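Supplementary Methods, section 5.1.

A reviewer requested that the exact input to the structure prediction be made available. We therefore reproduce it here, unchanged from the version used in the analyses.
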Amino acid sequence: MIALACIGEPISWLELELFAIGRDDQRIASHVAACPACRHCLDEIRGDLVALPPLVVPQTPVARARAWWSRLVPAIALAAAAVIALVLWRDRAPEAVREDVVVVKGVGEVVLGVVRERGGVIREDVHSFGAGDRWKVVVTCPPSAAASVEVSVTEVGATASDHPLMPARIACGNRIVLPGAFTLTGTRANRVCAHVTSAGGDSGTACVTIAPE
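The structure derived from this sequence is encoded token-by-token as follows.
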């Protein structure tokens, strides 16, 4: 097979994957139209029969209610509500530590999530696997930050981890989809972890557990 060379600066695989699932980017569109190498990579991504669509987080009823409240309530009422909220916050019990959340200096709070594709049905609210399931990893972190993310998968009881996805450098945002997908096999639970590193070298790890059905 003859290797194709890019006509200029290659488009990253992550950018091509986001473009393939719907991101409007005229720079990438113009580049792949003229570059056989990057167009070939884009065709390979689009040829993935079970590629997951972009994830859309709907506005919650709470968020809609808050927007309505802010338009109608005078500023003095909002200030009173803030005082009440502060008192309630002080009185509530401490929240349990979440293993899917880590705070990394230079990045901020990072939340790890997974998406399961089974027979064409995509779910974000499950942590159990069966034969043939495909998994994507998503990361949420402050939009002003950037981070390097390396994913590891460790079966409970194993002494070594698998690394099914290539390490990725991402610009943070809401539920950023890491490129690539993987499957899980066996009869034991698996720990899926994202090791997050900032530009300054600080790091932390968030994990989720996916159990067999």
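The longest strand covers residues 108-118. These observations are discussed further in the main text.
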